[in-house]
Structure to design on (744 residues):
């Protein structure tokens, strides 16, 4: 087109375009002419169609009206259906959402129920499911956020609740520990009676712990049971350990196991210290010891149970530490309180209780060697208590005894004595009845009591794991102490009684001699009941048997001497010397004669005494007589003594020489012979004839002779008397010089 306007072809183009239009018009006109009739026909038909269309339209309108009338209810139902479908859709959506929320709510309700029922470990598991499984599904809801925020508080509540249960458990276990210990010790006693060989070799197995999820105990009963179900109670039967297991699981899940272990062990150590505090009056009755020991056994049986079932809550190192701490306190407490005990029967019960205590704890794996050492210490105290008890027995026997030799009138009585005391005397057996034993009933009574003492000593040593030699040695030492210390002490106390007669003292010394001889039979008796060999004991011990009653015999000797002196004093008080007697009577004084007769009868009773005792008593009696006679002469009450009186005293002294030579005999000999030159010449020499005459004594006696001479009126007229007086003055002068020299 641009090319047409740019050139000269525009006119030509227009001409051609007109020509073309005209050509097309002719074609259109020709075509119209050709179709005109058809068009007229069509118009006519169209007019006919219009009438028909109107008729049809009216019919349609009528149908429409009829349709609308009939479809009005359908439309209403349709709208209702749409509304119903909308509600149905909403319900489906609500159900779907509730299906998501319902497990959350159900789980939360389950959680609350479990906590109410104190099933804290399952509650903790439920809480985990709620937090990690169900709450994420309903994260878009506000209540889920509240629950999520409340979960830490719920965990803390579970933790606190389980800890509260644990505290209740600890309080209950403290109350039930004595009962648990009592049951454990009763089981041990039953095992000891049924099978002594098993005790100490097999460790008692603790029952299985309850399932922490279900709370049930998985327990398989043994094939055979030696006890009734009601009697075979263990720590698990007496107390519920589930709070411990639950709390341990809960703290383990929450990552605080170490905190829980520390708390549990700390609390149990505090309870151990309380259990280890003995009652203040524990030593008074066995009930106090039982309560103390049952509490300790119960504590450690519980700990052993937790050790075996607590999944590491208590380990062996911790338990050994607590036991070692407790052991020293137990030993000290038992040692202290048993030291106060003075009842041998109670001490035997204490020993048996400690033995059962040892066996029970040893069966649970605890070391009890220190407790066995303690029993050895208590045994020594027990022997001392026995000795104190037998002191009372000995004193009762001594108080009731008459100390007269046993006299029997028949063979049955004779045999009865020999059954109670080992005595053999061929000469006595050959005598006819009535027969008299040399000892009093004291001897068999004491012998039998010593055997009873030996049995009592042996009773404590049973089951102490001592060898026969150790038991034998212990009993021998205790028996030796009983006789040499306790019985000798009773004798010494008896000898100090004023009511004890001289002959009774003599009989007691005789009795002690037979008791000493019987110690050989006691040693054989000890060897027989202990089973220890007899060799090596008799020879070593028999050498010292004569010294067993050495102290008592010394006391007896002193008592014999003292009582003999007091009896002699009764005769000496009858002294009636005439100190100015001119001539002696020619015979001994009457009191001296009676005194010598008494001594002779007494010395006859010394026949069965040990020779050294009899000799000492005789010597003491003679010295006392000599000293008393000398004191008579030297008494300040006697101002004058005549030669006749001295001669009478010399006659009395000669009578006393039949038993012993009095020390004052040299003094009397000097005055009877008037041998002063010899006295002065030999004075101070070891072989002096008058070695026992002291100058001062001679001076006193010479002064009294001089005073007696002054009473004689005519003595001054005789030359011999004057010479004698002069000699007396000379002797006195020399004696005073000797006395002054001796003082310098």
């Amino acid at each position: 087109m641009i090319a047409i306007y740019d050139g000269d072809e525009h006119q030509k183009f227009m001409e051609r375009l007109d020509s073309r239009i005209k050509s097309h018009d002719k074609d259109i006109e020709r075509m119209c002419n050709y179709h005109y009739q058809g068009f007229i026909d069509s118009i006519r038909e169209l007019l006919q169609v219009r009438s028909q269309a109107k008729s049809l339209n009216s019919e349609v309108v009528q149908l429409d009206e009829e349709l609308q009338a009939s479809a009005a209810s359908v439309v209403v139902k349709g709208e209702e259906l749409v509304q119903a479908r909308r509600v149905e859709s909403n319900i489906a959506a609500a159900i779907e959402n509730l299906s998501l929320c319902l497990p959350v709510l159900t789980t939360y309700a389950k959680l609350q129920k479990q906590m109410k029922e104190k099933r804290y470990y399952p509650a903790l598991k439920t809480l985990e499911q709620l937090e990690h499984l169900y709450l994420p599904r309903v994260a878009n809801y506000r209540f889920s956020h509240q629950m999520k925020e409340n979960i830490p508080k719920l965990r803390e509540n579970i933790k606190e609740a389980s800890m509260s249960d644990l505290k209740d458990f600890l309080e209950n276990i403290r109350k039930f520990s004595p009962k648990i210990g009592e049951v454990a010790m009763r089981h041990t006693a039953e095992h000891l009676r049924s099978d002594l060989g098993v005790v100490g070799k097999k460790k008692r197995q603790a029952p299985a712990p309850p399932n922490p999820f279900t709370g049930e105990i998985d327990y398989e009963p043994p094939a055979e049971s030696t006890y009734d179900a009601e009697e075979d109670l263990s720590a698990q039967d007496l107390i519920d350990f589930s709070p411990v297991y639950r709390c341990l699981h809960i703290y383990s899940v929450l990552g605080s196991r170490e905190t829980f272990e520390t708390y549990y062990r700390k609390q149990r150590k505090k309870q151990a210290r309380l259990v280890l505090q003995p009652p203040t009056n524990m030593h008074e009755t066995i009930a106090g010891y039982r309560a103390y020991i049952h509490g300790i056994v119960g504590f450690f049986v519980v700990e052993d149970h937790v050790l075996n079932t607590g999944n590491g809550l208590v380990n062996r190192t911790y338990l050994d530490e607590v036991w070692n701490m407790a052991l020293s306190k137990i030993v000290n407490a038992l040692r202290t309180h048993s030291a106060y005990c003075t009842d041998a029967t109670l001490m035997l019960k204490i020993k048996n209780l400690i033995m059962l205590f040892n066996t029970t704890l040893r069966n649970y794996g605890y070391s009890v060697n220190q407790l066995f050492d303690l029993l050895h210490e208590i045994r020594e105290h027990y022997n001392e208590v026995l000795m104190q008890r037998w002191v009372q027995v000995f004193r009762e026997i001594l108080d009731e005894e008459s100390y007269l030799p046993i006299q029997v009138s028949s063979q049955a009585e004779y045999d009865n004595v020999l059954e109670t005391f080992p005595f053999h005397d061929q000469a006595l057996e050959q005598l006819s009845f009535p027969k008299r034993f040399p000892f009093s009933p004291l001897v068999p009574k004491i012998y039998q009591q010593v055997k009873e003492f030996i049995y009592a000593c042996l009773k404590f040593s049973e089951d102490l794991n001592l060898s026969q030699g150790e038991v034998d040695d212990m009993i021998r030492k205790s028996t030796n102490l009983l006789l040499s210390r306790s019985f000798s002490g009773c004798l010494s106390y008896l000898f100090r009684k004023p009511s004890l007669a001289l002959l009774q003292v003599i009989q007691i010394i005789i009795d002690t001699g037979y008791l000493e001889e019987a110690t050989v039979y006691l040693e054989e008796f000890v060897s027989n009941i202990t089973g220890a060999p007899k060799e090596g004991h008799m020879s070593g011990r028999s050498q010292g048997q004569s010294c067993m009653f050495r102290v008592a015999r010394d006391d007896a000797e002193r008592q014999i001497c003292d009582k003999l002196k007091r009896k002699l004093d009764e005769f000496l008080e009858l002294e009636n010397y005439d100190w100015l007697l001119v001539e002696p009577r020619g015979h001994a004084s009457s009191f001296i004669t009676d005194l010598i007769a008494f001594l002779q009868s007494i010395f006859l009773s010394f026949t069965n005494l040990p020779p050294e005792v009899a000799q000492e008593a005789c010597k003491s009696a003679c010295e006392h007589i000599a000293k008393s006679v000398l004191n008579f002469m030297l008494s300040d009450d006697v101002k004058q003594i005549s030669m006749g009186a001295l001669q009478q005293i010399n006659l009395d002294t000669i009578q006393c020489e039949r038993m012993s030579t009095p020390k004052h005999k040299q003094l009397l000999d000097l005055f009877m012979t008037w041998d002063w030159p010899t006295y002065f010449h030999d004075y101070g020499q070891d072989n002096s004839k008058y070695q026992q005459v002291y100058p001062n004594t001679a001076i006193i006696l010479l002064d009294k002779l001089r005073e007696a001479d002054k009473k004689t009126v005519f003595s001054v007229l005789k030359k011999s008397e004057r010479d004698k007086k002069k000699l007396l003055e000379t002797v006195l002068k020399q004696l005073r010089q000797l006395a002054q020299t001796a003082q310098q």
